[in-house]
Each structure stands twice: as structure tokens, then as C-alpha cells.
Amino acid sequence: MKTVLIATKNKGKAKEFESLFASKGYEVLTLLDIPNAPDVEETGSSFEENAVIKAEAIARQAGHFVVADDSGLIVDALDGRPGIFSARYAGEDKNDQANLEKVLEELRGVPEGERTARFYCSLALASPNQETITVAGSVEGLIINEPRGDSGFGYDPIFFVKDLGKTMAELSSQEKNKISHRAHALKELESLLDSFLERERLS
Ligand SMILES: O=c1[nH]c(=O)c2ncn([C@@H]3O[C@H](COP(=O)(O)OP(=O)(O)OP(=O)(O)O)[C@@H](O)[C@H]3O)c2[nH]1
Ligand SMILES: [Mg+2]
Asked: In which residues is substrate bound (predicted)?
């Protein structure tokens, strides 16, 4: 089986990548499988910049091609926050529950029609031998008042997907993996992955 290394330490993302890539015949390894994997500082000012920083740093260290994901929640009524700071919105300890509560608190009193939001995911594919490729995907939703559902991770319980009439956390992992920002970005990457890997083989 072909193996792909994902430069993430986020368990929720790792699980989603495992099932997204399994359907394409790849086994997934993440930084959670690698003892003492470094923490790469996300110093960029966009999702794309941060995805490239993470992918290139780990590709250099591993001497191997890797995929990195930088993603987050963009809330229109909060001028795009938490955005690239989604993982640490309520503090450095990356507490999903506290992050979600901070968003709900900041949106208190904002009417339903103004609670539009999207999840955005940038994926970077990097190798020591080639130019880095980036792709992106997003999914539109509404931030509801109270968390609902317990699948997924992060802000999923407050992100309502109108077409499905459910929050992301009320979807099964298969359902989320059909419509999520990460799934859309990976679909974009799919068409580029084979030729990237072919160049990798020849380099
Ligand atoms: O409800 C959610 N459903 C999702 O599908 C999702 N995808 C991203 N996010 C949020 O955005 C942060 C990423 O920040 P991020 O890209 O820097 O990742 P991270 O720091 O958690 O791990 P790493 O990949 O950098 O190691 C995450 O922690 C979450 O708060 C999501 N929330
Ligand atoms: Mg991060």
C-alpha cells in the first residue's frame, strides 16, 4: 500500500485523513506516529502560508514528500475571526470547548441571518525534490446558539450545514467526509497527486 505522511498533530484531522485517503488506496501516517516530531511554528498570515510552512519544514526533516493542512473557521460577523487562529482562539492550550464557547459569546445577540460562516482548508504538498503545490476547499454554514452533536472536533457542534439540516457534529464521519472543506480540498489535490508522485519517483 502507498503511504502518505500528513504533517499534523491534530487527532481529529488525522482520523479524517485516514478515512479520506483509505478510499484512494493510501495508508496515512501523521506526526502523532512519529516520536519527538517537531512543533512547527505557524508564522504565516494566511492558511496557505501556514500550510506551506508546515509541509516544507516536515518534508525537509523527513526527506520525503508530505501533505500539511492549515484550516479554520471564518465567521463573517466577527470580521473573519477566528480564522488562522482557530486552534488557539481561547488560548495557547488549544481547547476546542473553550474556543467554541468564545465564538458563541462573541456572537451573542447576533441574529440568525447574520451568523454566516465557512470552514476553510488549505492543503500543501511539499517534497525536498519539487516545488510545493497548494489547493483549498471550503464549506458554508451558520453558527447556531447552542452546540449540537458529538462527532467530529473543534467547532463542528456549532457549525450548521443548511442543506443537510444538521451541525457538522451531527453528521457521521462518512457524511462529513463528503461535504467538508477538507474533503473538497483533497478532491482538488487528487488530480495533482499522481503526477507529483510520478515526478517524485523520477527525481
Ligand atoms: O470544527 C471543526 N471542524 C473541522 O473540520 C476543522 N478543521 C479545522 N478546524 C479548526 O481549525 C483549527 C486548525 O488549526 P491548524 O490548521 O493550525 O491545526 P492544529 O493546530 O489543530 O493542528 P496541526 O495540523 O497544525 O498540527 C482546529 O484546531 C479547529 O479549531 C476545524 N474545526
Ligand atoms: Mg496548528
From this structure: 8-13, 71, 153-156, 176, 181-182
Using the mean position of ligand 2's atoms as its centre, give its distance from the Cα of residue 131 in Å.
22
Centre of ligand 2 to C-alpha 12, Å, is 12
The model's pLDDT over 33-62, given as tens digits with 9 standing for 90+, comes to 999 999 999 999 999 999 999 999 999 999
Candidate list 33, 39, 70, 96, residue with the active-site label? 70
**For residue 146, what are the domain limits?**
2-202
- Among 71, 85, 177, the mutation site with the greatest number of ligand 1 atoms within 8 A of its Cβ is 71
- CA-based R_g, the chain, Å: 17
pLDDT digits (tens, 9 = 90+) for 12-36: 999 999 999 988 889 999 999 999 9
Cα–Cα separations (whole angstroms), residue 181 to 74, 108, 146, 203: 12, 26, 22, 32
Q: Count up the domains in the chain and report the number.
A: 1
Q: Which residues have C-beta within 8 Å of that of residue 146, sequence separation ≥ 6? A: 104, 158
The CATH number of residue 56's host domain is: 3.90.950.10
89 is in an annotated binding site: no
